[in-house]
Amino acid sequence: MTALDPTTAQLPAQPKGGTPRSGQHTRLWAALLALPTGWMVAFFLSSMVIVVLLSFGRTQADGQPVFSTRLDNYAQLWDPLYLRLFLRSVSYAVATTAICAVLAYPVAYVVALHGGRRKNLLIAAIVVPFFASYLIRMYAWSALLSDDGLVNSLIVRLHLGGGVQFLNTPYAVIGGLVYGYVVFMILPVYAALERMDTSLIEAGKDLYHGPWRTFWSVTLPATRAGLFGGVLLVFLPALGDFVSAQLLGGPKTFMIGNLIQQQFLEGQNWPLGSAMTVAMMIGLTVIMVGYLRATATRSREAS
Amino acid sequence: MTPHPALSRRALLQGAATLGGVAGLTALTGGCAYLPSDAATTTTALPASAKAVIDGDLVYFNWADYLDPSVFTGFEKEYGVKIIQSNFDSMEGMYAKLQAGNQYDIVFPIAKWVQRLRAEGKLRAIDHAQLSNADQVFHSGSYFVDPWYDEKSAVSVPFTVYKTGIGWRTDKVGTMTNSWRDLWNPEAARRIYTLDDQDEALAMGALLLGYDVNTAKQSELDEIKKLLISQKKYLRGYSSDDVNNMVGGNAWIHHMWSGDFLYLRTSLVKKPENYDFQAPKEGVPINSDAYAIPVNAQHPGTAMVFIDYLLRPEIAKKNIEYLSYPMPVRDAMPAFEALAKDVPACNVELSELESGNVFRNLSADAVQRRTATWTDVRAS
């Protein structure tokens, strides 16, 4: 088991070495793989290549970005301001990931182990709201949490206080990110819990007594792969997000995603935006490699 | 009330536009725009104007919810053609679609984009003699006979005009001085919003310091940056969602667009008397948009007829009441004045149009210097 379980699970199984397979079978697999591979090359890889190439480009006098071979864009990145934005974004993303994990476990646990016949219905109930566009959900949130909004009028009506300023704070931004991405944590954790042998929990209860110790020593380690997958799926988009900070943020919640967006829209500086994107991808790759190595070691130790 | 857009188009410009930016990337690749060509666009003779004769269904390209829906049905009924609608969410998105070769009969660019599209030869001439209502906007003394963005209005017909000012809650704030300084008003500390818009925010700082709204001088930009950073401790946020911030009670003072304010005051709030708008004495940015016909339009004749139809005072009046933006259609102006009778500052005067406080097309260098300044403000 590797930490990347949820993602690798989507790929078709590789023919195992040693098992004799007919040539027809191999061709079938090749044909089945050709379509997704072609799709990835056409729409994912090629756009990545354009971004990388453009990061060495420049902007013409008329505002059009063009390819070139200069390093100016990267030289411009050495600005302590950008580093501070990056650190701010990382801290928001870490907080988001942690809150998502804390929220996802009880939800996934209840659905997986106590959902019974309604399991699929419950999962659908969690997933369906996420069919609505992220942007729309953020707008809904800002309407709900505004000073004269539903939540605040309820607080006032129930005499719980004079109303709370939710919006335009770092907390609102993190809250928006959690709401936006929590489903990506729930699903892999749910999948791991569902696969787990429940007799392990019963054995754990016999061995350790209390439910807390059972959770820490049995359930959590057994579902680690799902958690690790969820952490990746939440952390990465949260770090690059700009919508939450734009719609719910205050004067000091600008994130790295907002910075990049600004270069592409108002800034007319796609080359600089591309260089920022590439630099961020490199930074994230370093973090990811470290993370994967650490989690892989732990998974090995656990098994 | 008529169904109105829930979000201001500016807010969408900020939010959803990002998706448009991505679409733009693909569109531009299609046009091979990445290969350098610094050759200046040659200004050739304008593609000739079409006659105002119906020549097919109308392919229409505009911001969402930007005309009264009854205007569409009225036109379809009267002329027996269909209007095929599509929308853009940013000027960049509109430009990318035109660049990619999409064919539209009528588009609605903002002033500086008219200038750019005309310089690139993407717009057809519009012969005023073909428009029976041309006199409504091009009468002598009208600013639009020869506006700054389109010499002699050869390729465009003016649609709406608007300005940027300050909206505020009269029930919450007592001290306003009719100055941009009011965006630093301690009485409303942490209840003030500045527009999350590079040009608007920099222009506000520039006007306060007495500089040109399009300034790209480094020394002036540095001063503007310092000034705007000093505003942070009074701000609740940067946002272009001015209408919703006011409606939701988050904002007591908001840097906002005149049309958005009037729409808020006339259509959304229970106590309009608690809301007021000022156009600060240091000067205000003025903007406008226009009707234009792309050079590759398949039905330019229908587009001419449609423009003529929109210039009819009774049709313009409908759109004014739907949008809350003033339009320079002579006989429809009283309708706007009636709508804005309690907040005359929402109207745009001729002297303001002539003030020169308009957002112009700048060189890529200048835009990048301005962006760097705005980034520093936002990030600090």
Q: Secondary-structure blueprint of this entry?
A:
The complex is a heterodimer of chains A (303) and B (380).
Chain A: H1 5-8, H2 23-54, E1 58-59, E2 65-66, H3 72-75, H4 80-114, H5 119-127, H6 134-145, H7 150-157, H8 170-181, H9 183-195, H10 198-208, H11 211-222, H12 224-240, H13 243-248, H14 256-264, H15 270-302
Antiparallel strand pairs in A: 1-2
Helix pairs in contact in A: 2-15, 4-8, 4-9, 4-12, 9-12, 10-11, 12-15, 14-15
Chain B: H1 9-14, H2 17-30, E1 58-62, H3 69-79, E2 83-87, H4 91-99, E3 106-107, H5 111-119, H6 135-138, E4 156-169, E5 192-194, H7 198-209, H8 218-230, E6 235-238, H9 242-247, E7 253-257, H10 258-268, E8 275-278, E9 286-292, H11 300-310, H12 313-323, H13 333-339, H14 350-353, H15 364-379
Parallel strand pairs in B: 1-2, 1-3, 5-6, 5-7
Antiparallel strand pairs in B: 4-7, 4-8, 4-9
Helix pairs in contact in B: 2-4, 7-8, 8-15
The rounded Rg of chain B comes to: 21 Å
Instruction: Report low-confidence residues of chain B grouped into runs of 5 or more.
Output: 1-32
CATH domain topology of chain A: MetI-like fold
Structural class of chain B: alpha/beta
